[in-house]
Write a structure and sequence with these properties.
The longest helix is centred in the C-terminal third of the chain and has 15 residues, at 209-223. It is built from six helices and 18 strands. It folds into two domains: 2-113 and 253-264, Diaminopimelate Epimerase, Chain A, domain 1 (Roll), CATH 3.10.310.10; 121-245, Diaminopimelate Epimerase, Chain A, domain 1. By secondary structure, the chain is of the alpha+beta class. It has helices at residues 32-42, 72-84, 130-134, 156-161, 166-169, 209-223, and strands at 2-10, 19-25, 46-53, 56-62, 67-68, 94-98, 101-108, 111-117, 121-123, 140-144, 148-152, 176-182, 191-197, 202-205, 227-232, 238-245, 248-253, 255-264. The chain starts with a strand and ends with a strand. The protein has an 18-stranded mixed beta sheet that branches.
């Protein structure tokens, strides 16, 4: 027995950039422990599992270590696979039921736009070790409703050059830490970011959709612009277009399939 399995680079228009995600097309319910084993075997930052339903798909995401409540790049990768295999047509949104609530994704030319919940951040006093782990002073420290710390630095260059102490960062009580700054003057991006989640088994995530659920309301308010272009400045790098729609965030990106294969599923 085998299942279709894909690897997709998300939030990029070229292979070997963006954030890689595995996408497994299920033919029925699957055991969570088996899905966790598959994610550990694939060893990318997220593996998505799509189970067809009457009105869309159940969608679950796993890192090599844990199941996620919300994951942007693996949702983008899933919608890309559905479009590439003819299961999603322009003008018909993909509908996903997830642990984080209902999500949709629409084909918009070369881009896929996803509808996610906004996760705004409010200013807080930084916890012990947070700034020390990041190796520098912050302009603003906030915490989102999704349990991410958002740390604004003084410049794009400071974000790009940051060298976190991951062992120390792992002691900070949070699901993840976002570093961000306004884009350099004259540059193509409105803001830049990086994302670290060592407590979830990911020291640095290449491009993080869920972090942009916090970055979007933060920078839309700060820059007084309705639509922004962000760049996540990891070693692979990726581009995310964001806009607010009430208490929702529209995240748009591109994706490229790099592997197609079959996953051998041993009967239970």
């Amino acid at each position: 027995m085998s299942l279709d399995l894909f690897q997709v680079d998300a939030f990029t228009d070229r292979p070997f950039a963006g954030n890689p995600a595995a996408v497994c097309l299920l033919d029925g319910p699957a055991d969570a422990s088996w899905m966790q084993d598959v994610a550990r075997e694939r060893n990318v930052s997220a593996t998505a599992f799509l189970e067809p339903t009457d009105d869309g798909f159940h969608l679950r995401w796993f890192t090599p270590a844990v199941e996620l409540e919300l994951c942007g790049h693996a949702t983008l990768a899933s919608a890309h696979v559905l479009a590439e295999t003819g299961r999603l047509q322009p003008g018909t949104p993909a509908r996903f039921q997830t642990r984080g609530g209902p999500l949709t994704a629409d084909l918009r030319g070369e881009w896929i736009e996803m509808d996610f919940p906004a996760k705004p951040a409010a200013p807080v006093s930084p916890p012990e070790d947070l700034l020390a782990a990041l190796g520098g002073a912050a302009c603003v420290v906030s915490r989102s409703t999704f349990d991410y710390y958002l740390v604004e630095l003084a410049s794009e260059a400071a974000v790009r050059s940051a060298a976190p102490d991951f062992a120390r960062l792992r002691t900070v009580p949070s699901r993840g830490v976002i570093l961000t700054a306004q884009g350099a003057a004259g540059g193509p991006y409105d803001f830049v970011s990086r994302f670290f989640a060592p407590r979830l088994g990911i020291d640095e995530d290449p491009v993080t959709g869920s972090a942009h659920c916090t970055l979007a309301p933060y920078w839309v308010e700060k820059l007084a612009r309705e639509e922004l272009l962000g760049y996540q400045a990891s070693a692979r790098g990726g581009v995310v277009r964001v806009r607010l729609a009430g208490d929702r965030v529209k995240l748009a990106g591109q994706a490229v399939t790099v592997l197609r294969g079959q996953l051998v599923r041993t009967p239970a």
